[in-house]
Amino acid sequence: MKTAVLAAHPDDETIGASLVLTRSDSTIIYLTDGAPRETRLWPPDMQCSREEYAEKRRVEAQLAAACAGVSSERMFWLGAVDQEGMFAVAKSTAMLARILEQCRPGVLVTHSYEGGHPDHDACALLARLAIDLISADKKPALVEMTSYHAREGSCVTGEFLNSHPSSELIVDLNEAQHEIKQSMMAAHTSQKLVLQYFGTERERYRKAPQYDFTRPPHDGKLWYECMNWQMTGEHWRELADEAMAKSKVLACH
Predict the structure, then answer these.
(1) What pTM was computed for the model?
(2) φ and ψ of 151, to 5 deg
(3) Is 210 in a helix, a strand, or coil?
(4) Which residue ranges make up each domain of the chain?
């Protein structure tokens, strides 16, 4: 079965869905270029322009994808700036729908809505809106991979928010699969300080639930609010409401 992975940033596909990429005719779609405008969010040794940083992340993504057997011809970039994915959801919805109609995946894998990163949550919304624009005979099933979220003020990786093991596919990677995932991780050299917090032994997948994107994913501070990034949960939900309204207009045409 053909599979597409919608990742917020270069490396998210490696963290959450390396197994999927190695076992199917896969396409990777990135919402952002992985390079925030704020240099304080860059690796400490990154001394270059934002455009050069974005190009470095693109090259790293291509090297990682090659480890999984995915060619650069099967990689698509929606063009948003890292940390600003939510501002691009409305204009990216039709673009993503066209890519999915072109590639015809049976499954679309993306992030869950859990308040870890605003771009991750943007992908959860974007995937749902784009699928709603696709005719019934071409709609892919929507499946989630793990990312990270807040729990009691700490960051939890490799697990779903509101996790129910009975509803998940939990895969322990065999030796060969583990080696591929590690090679993909190593290809993202600029992100080594971040990737050390993510395991490589197993991956989890589940059918995407029907979210209410106008409500917070959980009580208390979202992880990106704990990190004092510019986006807040309240602003994110305002943008989500606007994007959903625009998507309804697109669907009517």
Answers:
(1) 0.96
(2) -145, 110
(3) coil
(4) 3-252
